[in-house]
Design brief:
About 40% of the residues lie in helices and about 10% in strands. The chain is α+β, with helices and mostly antiparallel strands. α5 (about 190-215) packs parallel to α7 (about 280-295), α7 packs antiparallel against α10 (about 340-350) and α8 packs across α9.
Length: about 350
Amino acid sequence: MTTNGGHEPVFCTVVPPHVLDKLAQAEDPVLAGPARRTLQRDAYERTHRRLTTVLGAPSVAPPVGAEPGRPRRTIHDARHGTDLPGHKVRGEGEEPGKDATVNRAYAGLGATFELFLTAYACNSIDGNGLPLTATVHYSKDYNNAFWNGEQMVFGDGDGEIFLDFTIPIDVIGHELAHGVTQYTANLTYFGQPGALNESMSDVFGALIKQYTLGQTAAEADWLIGAGLLAPRVTGKALRSMKEPGTAYDDDVLGKDPQPATMDDYVRTGRDNGGVHINSGIPNHAFYLAATALGGHAWERAGQIWYDVLTGGELKSQALFVDFATLTVAAARARYGDGSEEFQAVSKAWEQVGVRTL
């Protein structure tokens, strides 16, 4: 695993700010209140993350005696407060308790660890056995989950729009994958590099779900956050890699704004330059490549994306064209010029309107 210019952890949430902004404007205080509190909490955590980055975050080393190739998970309960990490409720190897949220978080961390180790020989998200820490039951009616550069945090949702954020395993994988990016390419969290950062998390979040379910690319739903939306919401997930822009169309949430190709690229100053919106384009490219290749998506398509993320050539300020060019080169290097993999990746980027050099 190769790093790019050191680690500059950022605060990354799974629910985009534009979704919470829309909710915060709802006339119904039952919907608007939790969204406003979540936005306020996210703003605080984001500022705290910046201060920690400036002052220097404490390094985390594998525990003494940790067995190589085995996860070291610790789950904490915030008890609806905001002090992190909270009260320890389950450690590595301990039996499941009665709290389903704790058990889901523990299992999701394990599934993420297993995919990266089994498929890519990556020992935890830093490649060096980093302990995996998560906090559940964060704040009250908190409508998000985030990676803060050091650990995972999950809200319970408000029960009206969002349910428990540990329900979709791809949400857990998505946030932990931000850690993989942090320890490797360290993609800047703004504009196209930020959209690539978000896309990498969606890609590996989807792969973790598919790996856990034993699904092929053809069998997978390619949804991010399926099962997270409450019954009253007209929608199926937060995002769709298969059909960006179709995940939800709701009278309160609005319509999914993700583009599938560069023809509809969104230029905005919000959401760090649209990192959760324009990620639909590289997401769709991965879906196209993976389904063209068939079989298990984590094997060939996932391997190519992982090669680029960790290979050391992907710069922190990379644009879509830079990433696309590197994936084509990685496909050629691993599978050969003119190979099925090379052709599938090249065509996928062409279909979404991203040229390769």
